[in-house]
Amino acid sequence: MNLSDALLHPSEYDGAEISAYWQPVIGDNSSVLHVSVFGNLFLLNEQGHVLLLDSWSGDIHGVSESYEQYKTDVGTDPEFFRSWFLTDLIELLDAGGMTRGAGQVFAPFVSPALGGRLVLENFSTAPIKTYAALSSGEVLARRKV
Fold first, then answer.
1. What is the rounded distance in angstroms from the CA atom of residue 54 to the CA atom of residue 11?
2. Where is 132: in which H helix or E strand?
3. Which of 52, 96, 134, 141 has the fewest CB atoms within 10 Å, i.e. the most exposed one?
């Protein structure tokens, strides 16, 4: 598996539009680097750190201290790649016959943050814009932001 299997192609989404749904969580000082096939946002903040916005929980995790370190880790550290890009889950969904169309993500019926299981039956596909609107709305409603 390579990076293109784990990310949407930049032509498939508008980073500013997708991040706008998450603005109450990420603020105004981060830009979208990538969108994963699960709708997670890899962000670059104003300090140059790479962060991950988990679209299931709304939590933000530090990924790398710099974009250069991030690129190095993605290319040379299989465990880094596996854990941040959920490649085991991608392989499970692929093996189950689930395929995404252009601009679509693997979307859980029940968010794993709410107890949804990481099994084929809990996933479908959805357009990234729709998924971002729904998942951010769910997170913000839980947080009452």
1. 21
2. helix 128-143
3. 141
Q: Check if the beta carbon of residue 33 is closer than 8 Å to that of residue 43.
A: yes
Q: How far is Cα 32 from Cα 132, in angstroms, rounded to an integer?
A: 13
- What pTM was estimated for this model as a whole? 0.93
Per-residue pLDDT of the chain (145 residues; tens, 9 = 90+): 899 999 999 999 999 999 999 999 999 899 999 999 999 999 999 999 999 999 999 999 999 999 999 999 998 999 999 999 999 999 999 999 999 999 999 999 999 999 999 999 999 999 999 999 999 999 999 887 5
Residue 38's φ and ψ, nearest 5 degrees, are: -105, 5
Domain span holding position 7? 3-143
Distance between alpha carbon 114 and the CA centroid of its chain, in Å? 17
